[in-house]
Each structure stands twice: as structure tokens, then as C-alpha cells.
Protein: Pyrroline-5-carboxylate reductase
Organism: Pseudopedobacter saltans
Amino acid sequence: MSNKSSIAILGTGNMGAYIALGLSKSGMCDPASITLTRRNLDALAEYKSQGFNISNDNVAAAKEANIIILGVLPQQLNEVLDQIAPVVDESKHLIVSIISGVSSVDIQKKLNKNIEVIRVMPNTAIAINQSMTCIAGDHASKENIELVKNIFSTVGVAMVIKEDLMPAATALCSSGIAFFLRTIRAATEAGVQMGFHSHEALEMASQTVKGAADLLIQLGGHPEVQIDRVTSPKGCTIAGLNEMEHNGFSSALIKGITLAGQKAGNLLSQDK
Ligand SMILES: NC(=O)C1=CN([C@@H]2O[C@H](COP(=O)(O)OP(=O)(O)OC[C@H]3O[C@@H](n4cnc5c(N)ncnc54)[C@H](O)[C@@H]3O)[C@@H](O)[C@H]2O)C=CC1
Ligand SMILES: O=C(O)[C@@H]1CCC=N1
């Protein structure tokens, strides 16, 4: 398997499309080497005009590709696996699954082949090559794990983890985009209440969050070290922070992320 492989994304919704756009933007893949499938082809017209191949035939797309990315919802997966099982070939294909809550072994069993399945958990920032992507290949070769890591390193930061931590990675990094965006929205609303127009408050909150994240990414260390640099004695920051903590700020984040983690490990067997 080489980096020049052709890719089929079976089930191109929000995440599949963003993976394709990210890989094209980073220069990792030529759009012509990526085939996107979806049952409703009209919904993929904009990607065809950008040079991607589009199809509503999962079997044909899988046959042509070396890397098959499974991009449907967990509850839609069995139908796709039943379709492609007869054409999947251990010597040609590598299966990459972005599907939360379905193990690599379950996918292998359903395909009834001894084929390598690598789990990949990106987030929507892949569209701008800023994804945090977690990769698990507990039953895959080092060579294929390295190949997948190299591919996803072009669209952000890629980290190899054990598969049993995939639900936690899904909650922290993939759902995390929504969690951190909600904090930006709340901060924006506070800014508007204090007198800024919403577009001003949104720009201020977004750049401030970016600066906070970059302080940690570029300088390293624990967040509390940087927090100490902001909280002047008797100042407004500590007053605001303590008010937030009295109202359960850290606790709400921890509870929300860990609940999402539990749910991510159990998506097919829970109704709530
Ligand atoms: N949205 C996100 O931020 C992330 C999603 N994921 C995982 O990615 C997967 C997809 O999530 P989304 O893109 O959000 O869902 P989505 O519903 O937007 O995308 C799924 C797509 O698959 C298509 N589809 C369904 N059955 C099909 C079939 N038989 N053949 C071809 N296409 C078919 C649907 O029409 C839809 O466009 C899920 O398993 C989710 O757990 C993982 C990380 C992040
Ligand atoms: O909400 C979900 O289930 C999917 C997985 C992570 C992000 N979206």
C-alpha cells in the first residue's frame, strides 16, 4: 500500500466530505484519486465540479480503490458491509473506519475476511487541515498504521491510540468541536450583553480561544500555569472564574465529555 493509493469514501455526509476536502487542500490527494459515494448523487454535485469522482455504487467504488473509508452512520454500516464484502480483497484493500461505536473486529467479522481495519477518528476541522485525528490499529500492521498516520498528519495532528480509548477520543476530540464551539457562543452572548455587536463579540471570542489554545500548543505546560498569569490578585478574572466554578463550569464540561464518551462506545445499543 502506498501514499499514492486511490481512496473511496463510502457514505459522504458531513464528515466524509470534509475528509475529502481536507486531503485535497493539504495536497495529500488529487481529487481525481478520491471517489465519494452517497445514495443521492445530486447532493455530491458540488464535489464533482471540484474534480472528485462521485458515485452511488459502493461496490464499484470499493473495487477501484486501495483505501476504503467507511463514512456512514453506525446504523447504516451493515448494509454497506454486506454490499462490499464480496469484492473486498485482503491483498489490495485497507479498510479505514471513521464510524464511532463499531469495533475493528466487528467490521472484520461482518466482512468475513482477514482484512486489516484501522479506526480513525477525525474532527470537522479536517476541512481546514486542523483536525485532531486519533488512529487505532490494534490488529493492523505497523506499515499500514504508519501509512494512515502519514495521511492524516497532512490534515492536522494525528495520534495513534489503543482502540479501547476510541470512545474517549471521539468525545474529547470529535464531539469536542461542538463543545468548544458552544463555549465560544456563550462567550459571544456575554460580549453582546456587555455592549459589542455580535460579529465583533464573535471575532473577539474566537481569536481569544485560538490564542489560549496556541499558548498551550506552542509553549506547553499545564493550563493553570497560564491561568495564573491572567488572574491578578483581587482582579476581575479570578472573580469571573470563581463565579463560573460556583455554577459548575468545569464539572459541566467533565460530565458532558464523559457522558459523550460512554455514549460513543455504545451507540448502537442505546436509545437515549
Ligand atoms: N460528524 C462528525 O463530526 C464526525 C462523525 N464521525 C462518524 O462519521 C460517520 C458519519 O457521520 P456524519 O458525516 O456526521 O453523518 P452524515 O449522516 O452526514 O453522513 C452519512 C452519509 O452516508 C450516506 N449514506 C447512508 N447510507 C449509505 C449507503 N448505503 N451508501 C452510500 N451512502 C450512504 C448518507 O446519505 C449520508 O450522506 C458516523 O459514523 C460518525 O460516527 C466521526 C468523527 C466526527
Ligand atoms: O455525534 C456523533 O455521534 C458523531 C461522532 C463524533 C461526532 N459526531
Notes: The mean pLDDT is 96. The beta strands are 7-10, 34-37, 53-55, 67-70, 94-97, 117-121, 131-136, 156-160. The longest strand covers residues 131-136.
